[in-house]
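I am writing to request your help with a piece of structural work I have in hand. The matter concerns a single protein, recorded as an amino acid sequence and a row of backbone structure tokens. Could you please explain, in whatever detail you think fit, how the structure tokens follow from the sequence? Thank you for your consideration; the sequence and its tokens are set out here:
>
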Amino acid sequence: MDDKFKFKFDIYQRRFKQPLHTSHGVWQIREGIIISLIDRAGKLAQGEIAPLPWFGSETMSQALKFCQHLGETVSPEDIAEIPDRLPACQFAFESAWLNLTQIKEDSQACDLDFCYLLPAGEKALTAWQEIYQTQLNTTFKWKIGVYPLATEMAILQQLVKTFPPQIKLRLDANGGLNLQQAQKLLAVTDTLKAIEFIEQPLPPNNLAEILQLSQEHTTLLALDESVASLKQLQITYQQGWCGVFVIKAAIMGFPRKLTEFCQNNCLDFVFSSVFETEVGRSAVLKLAQELNHSRAVGFGGEYL
């Protein structure tokens, strides 16, 4: 039996509705690749390669080179042999293959809540109200480390004063603070009930200091850049991290391996976007539903 699938791919470029400001810089265009697999019956399934190289994934050029060298057909063995240095490719190809080959079963999939991304700086003061009124959304995420910390802390205190009691806010520093800045921020957030957690306050190589901060403060902390790959996720869990794990599934390799690890271990996790198209988004949200994801998923960005 010939198990090979017809293969084709298309490059996309999508300009954000408004540039995304983070401590990594300004991101204006999302590039990626949509792959298509077609079986002998003509059934088609798609997957998305959405690289995020500053998080440790392959680059767009590396992903494109891989696709160009595959030829017009792909086998399950070809997919299984995609190297770990191409995690976004692993995710895209296995997601598409699973859509072609898995038998749909009845499952107890949970309904997902969504966390909406607010614009950096003072724009957040009005943006949350517009989203809350139209989406009835109760979880928001705000990028910090973009402006001077004193400015952001002043905006933060003003922001949470306007929140109804049910609103939760995640702060995402993208590793952009130093230890002293993180301590100053945590001294404030420890007094604010609206804060759900602070995401990656320090750079990824400062895990020991992040652990120390988590023990010295009541504000819950989350790791993002520190767990950008499945291997990093596994190692950090083994080292005893008890906070939240932010999982960017689209750049973490084969989805079956990620699912197996999450099912076999007691993790407090959040699935988060890398600003995929609907193709990648659907694949990640499917994983979140299968794992009965309890926290709001980070797929409420209004930038695409």
About this structure: The two ends are 42 Å apart (CA to CA).
